[in-house]
Recover the amino acids of this structure.
């Protein structure tokens, strides 16, 4: 299973953008990049996913490097409610169902 | 559309008792996954089920753990003769049939074994 590497923790000021990096140098051509976040005492919440092109949704943007060996989750304006552990997960081609969670990045948002 | 439901949210058992954890997937979802999260760790895959079928149980401990997803009713994760090391948060996720298999997670059941 392809592995992801994320910083253990990051801090951001409220109302500022946050860039959460993820390295996945062994990604294969059919692996999708998924991001989830987990707030304290809750289940993981889907944030965004992509394959090759950058993606935007109401929660965040996903920027994928041209060689696909890294990606960045962008929160455009951090709020206190965005404080969570963010997981970058590689999921294989459709039908490859097993998510492999790493230890994620703990994001702290400062008021 | 209600999300994935899990109950109970908290469960306390004494060593040697049985624990039953229930998961109702989102409406229209026929695929269910169970994950376990130990304190301060990421989630670990346990088992993947479709209605009346276990597709992959490679993450399940060989003994005491079993899972089912009957034709009617919720999916059940059953742990027999619980030990202290079973204390963890157990999360269920579901996804729709077909190739769009983004998983949506429930709130989890926190099992404490005394």
């Amino acid at each position: 299973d392809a592995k992801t590497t994320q910083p253990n923790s990051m801090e951001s000021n409220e109302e500022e953008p946050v860039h959460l990096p993820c390295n996945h140098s062994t990604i294969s051509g059919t692996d999708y990049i998924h991001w989830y976040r987990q707030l304290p005492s809750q289940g993981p919440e889907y944030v965004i996913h992509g394959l090759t092109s950058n993606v935007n949704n109401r929660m965040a943007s996903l920027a994928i490097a041209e060689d696909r060996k890294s990606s960045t989750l962008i929160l455009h304006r951090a709020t206190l409610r965005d404080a969570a552990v963010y997981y970058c997960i590689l999921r294989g081609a459709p039908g490859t169902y097993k998510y492999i969670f790493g230890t994620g990045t703990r994001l702290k948002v400062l008021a | 559309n209600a999300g994935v439901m899990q109950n109970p949210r908290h469960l306390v058992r004494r060593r040697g008792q049985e624990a039953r954890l229930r998961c109702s997937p989102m409406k229209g979802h026929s695929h269910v996954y169970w994950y376990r999260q130990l304190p301060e760790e990421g989630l670990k895959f346990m088992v993947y089920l479709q209605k009346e079928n276990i597709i992959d149980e490679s993450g399940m401990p060989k003994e005491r753990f079993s899972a089912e997803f009957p034709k009617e009713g919720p999916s059940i994760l059953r742990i027999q003769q619980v030990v202290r090391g079973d204390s963890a948060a157990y999360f269920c996720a579901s996804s729709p049939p077909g190739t769009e298999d983004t998983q949506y997670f429930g709130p989890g059941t926190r099992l404490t074994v005394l």
Summary: The interface with chain A takes residues 4, 31, 33, 35, 41-45, 48, 55-56, 59, 91, 93, 95, 99-108 of chain B (CB under 8 Å). The two ends of chain B are 37 Å apart (CA to CA). Chain B has a mean pLDDT of 92. Residues 4 and 26 of chain B are 5 Å apart (CA to CA).
